[in-house]
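Supplementary Methods, section 5.1.

A reviewer requested that the exact input to the structure prediction be made available. We therefore reproduce it here, unchanged from the version used in the analyses.
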Amino acid sequence: MSTIDDRYATRAVPRYTSYPTAPHFHAGVNAETLGGWLSDLPRDMELSLYLHVPYCRSICNYCGCHTKGARRDDPVIAYALKLAREVALVADRLGDRRSVSHIHWGGGTPSLLPRESFLDIVRVLRERFDFTEGHEHAIELDPRTVTPELAGTLREAGITRASLGVQDFDHTVQKAIGRIQPFEQVASAVGALRAVGIDAINFDLMYGLPHQTLDTIAETIRLTRDLRPGRIALFGYAHVPWFKKHQRLIDEKSLPDADARIAAADFARARLAEAGYTAIGLDHFALPDDSMAIAYADGTLRRNFQGYTTDTADALIGMGCSSIGRLPQGFVQNMPDIGGWGRAVDAGELPVARGIALDADDRCRAEIIERLMTDHRADVAEIAARHGFPLSQFATAFAQLEEMVADGLVRRTGGLVEVSKAGQRYARVAAAAFDAYLERGTARHSVAV
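The structure derived from this sequence is encoded token-by-token as follows.
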């Protein structure tokens, strides 16, 4: 490992899918708070909806999601009924039938919802919200669950984009992570989706997995190229067994060391570029004609709890247990336990567990961090002035960046901060310099690369 890698690649910093980050949410933001925030949203504000389904048939060893195993449909059906009720509760607080430009189903495995349960929720969504022309309706899928019948249901529901969890095509790696899905199975899933007109397809790939080698990564990318998804998310596996106990099933001796992990990340990025994909931010890639590549080029790319996104809605409302919403007034997270979430919904209450209200400094720092994470540059002086702050507000951040400036990873010209090409893999570290909460917290974060 080089000296620079040694100092930055293993530094534990947030992924900045929000600012302030979730460890700083607190119980002072509650159901009453969210109700007021929803009621106060301007009538013409465009909304984005996220629906969380916390069930999988089995839990993969590497999984870091908030989900649980469900071998029977009964608990999933019961959950769907309550999720439909929560949609109605949120719509009641909003009042008028509001415009929605993005809908995203995550999990877990949202496709485990039985056909009628899924379509019932979509029906409630359509009754209570106004889907804008050209809206995106996306869902995360386990390729092992995708059949022609499911693809037909997704098409009937109006799904326009599907994201498939591929991770790696090597059998030895798949066995180690507890997710066996041969290439033929994934290809069949892609074919079923495209056969019904769902052509916008994303793949999730991972590096840093047990038993992974550069050869297995090369083969995974070759096979991925053959299926030609429009977007690819390349995530580094976050081994956090103190937080996700099932990750203890992974033999730590089979995981790459820091040098091998960095080499794998660089190798995968190079192979994806050779395959014709545009690198976007830390970990996303898109074909040049994909809307995400276009947003990256024109400076409108955003970042939220789904990672990099083209979603430019002013408010993201999360529904389902553990889901997180982002409103102009602040962030809010639902109760993480299914039982508590369901009891609150049945009682006609918004099932809020915690959140954080934003002040002017939070909003200013959030914009700086988002621009560094998306564009790799932020005009701190311009952003600060627009939010009513002098540039001196960020003197401490600039001081923290000096090390990266000296190493050629960041350039600073007055109030303009730019992450160099060599420094882009450490964009999270640069962003962390503007995080006013980081030193206060005790949360453990994944490594930067």
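The mean pLDDT is 93. These observations are discussed further in the main text.
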